[in-house]
Structure formats: C-alpha cells, structure tokens
Amino acid sequence: MDILLLQQIMIAALKTGTPLLLIALGELVCEKTGVLNLGQEGMMLMGAMAGFAGALYTGNLFLGVTLAILAGMAMSLLFGALSLNLNTNQVATGLALTIFGTGLSSFLGGDLVGSTIDGFKPIAIPLLSDIPFIGPLLFKQDLLVYLSFVLVAASWWVMHKTRVGLTVRAVGENPYSANALGIKVIRVRFLATLFGGAMAGLAGSYMSLAYTPMWMENMTAGRGWIALALVVFASWRIAYLALGAYLFGFASILHLVMQGLGVDISPNLLAMTPYIATIVVMVAISSNALAQKLSTPMSLAKPFDPKVH
C-alpha cells in the first residue's frame, strides 16, 4: 500500500468518523450527569432533515446548521420534559424518541428526497496544509470537521479543568449529595440533555450538508446506535472517544477499501463491518464487569426526585 493511498484512507476515515464523534460527544456529556438518552438516532435524523431543508430553501449552509442544532435541541427538550420532569423511564423514553424522530423526519422530508445542494467544501489552512502527509489529513477539511476538533478540545478542558465539569461529574455520581450541596441537579441534567441534542443535530447536519449533501430517509444508517456503544467503548473518556470514533469510521469504509484492493469478498458482507465491530466491542466490554462498573457514572439512567432525601 503506497503512502498516498494510506493518506486517502485516513482522510476518508476521519470524515466518516466525524458525525460519530459529534453525536457521541454530546451523549458522553449527557451520560456524565446520569442521563441515558437512547433517542440519538431520532435526533440525528431530525437534525439532518432540518439542516438540509434550511440550506435548500434559504441557500445558506450556516442557517441550515443552526436549524439542525435547534431541531436536535427541540427533540432533547421533549426527552428532558418526560424523563427529568415527569420521571418517565429513560430507556423507554429514548427508544420512543428514536421511533418518533425517524418517522417525523421521513414525513417532513418526504418532498426533499433526491434533492441535492452544494455542501461544505474543504478549506485548506495556509502553510499547515502543506505539511507532508499530516497537512491534507488535518488541515484541508471542511468547517464542520474543524469545528469537531474545537469541540473535542473544549469539552475535554471543561470536563477536566473547570468547576462546570466537576459539577457535571458530581451530579452523575451522586445526585442526592450534589443536591445537598446546593447544586440544581435537574437543571444540570437538563442543560446536559440539551447539549446532547445540539450535538446530535450538528452531527445530522454534517451528514446532509457535508458528508453527502442531500437528504435520504434513514440516511444516518444506525450511527446514533453506534455512538451509544462508542461512549461505553471509550469508558466515558473524551480522548478515547475521539480515537474510537475514527476507528469506527475506518470500519465503515473498510468494505470500500477492500474492494479497491481487489479482495474477493461480498461487498454486502463487508458493509456489515461497523455493526459487527459494535457487537464485538460491546461483548468485550461486558466480559469485564468490574472495569465497566468502575467507569460507569453511578447514577446512569436512575431518576432523581429532589423531594427524596
């Protein structure tokens, strides 16, 4: 394999992993507060549809991204109202949100199927993009990829170096102790849920405005579910999350790489690679119950009632 082919594979893996990174980052922060939102797929689809519709009708890609983020936040607001205010079961509510988002995006985007737009284009950063091998890989990407780099770095800094991050972790580990210290647990969880929705919407906009600038029903192809597994795979650590997202991105394009290399394997079988990888990862993680217990936020998916002491 020559160096140019390897570079192109890595660029493709980075692009494919970006939506996974964005949506998984939002879910990681959400889960750090103890909220498990299984509605990622539905929120991402709504973001993809809203973003594409906004860009198509206005001709403004940035307005499309804004609408996608707002759509994701609206979906997460619905989840928060049910699971945080009314204390409905988080797992059931998240599953219902995915079903709702999948159906609603198909209904509202029915007339948009097959439409295309000029999406985000790669922007080369002067001097840095000329660095051999690394330059085109990291410094010749579209704006949403650059934004993902910034969001990962900013999220890591906030979670590990600020009082906000300490508050988030405290709420996720023991909400009742956090409440006794005067922390507004429901407010913190609601804000984290909204952040997760915004990131899901942003990930959806990347799919329809940059990765494949068009709208198709169910175009996220299960990426919301993979993102949920990715958070567990990363043990709720942002650095591992970024690495895992790009590894899953590589697994997603592996069938194209293998076909390009002339490997005589059914393309349909190779296309199953990212989903097989998800299953393998989850089985491997589940085999070490102690490590999983130590890394999992203690109050994950557990309701909080401020009236209970």
Automatic annotation (TrEMBL):
Gene Ontology, cellular component aspect: plasma membrane
Protein name: ABC transporter permease
Keywords: Cell membrane, Membrane, Transmembrane, Transmembrane helix
Localization: Cell inner membrane
Main localization (coarse): membrane
Signal peptide stretch: none
GO molecular function: transmembrane transporter activity
The UniProt record lists the keyword Nuclease: no
Entry's transmembrane regions: 6-30, 42-59, 65-84, 91-110, 143-159, 190-212, 224-257, 269-291
Pfam families, sorted: BPD_transp_2
Membrane association type: Multi-pass membrane protein
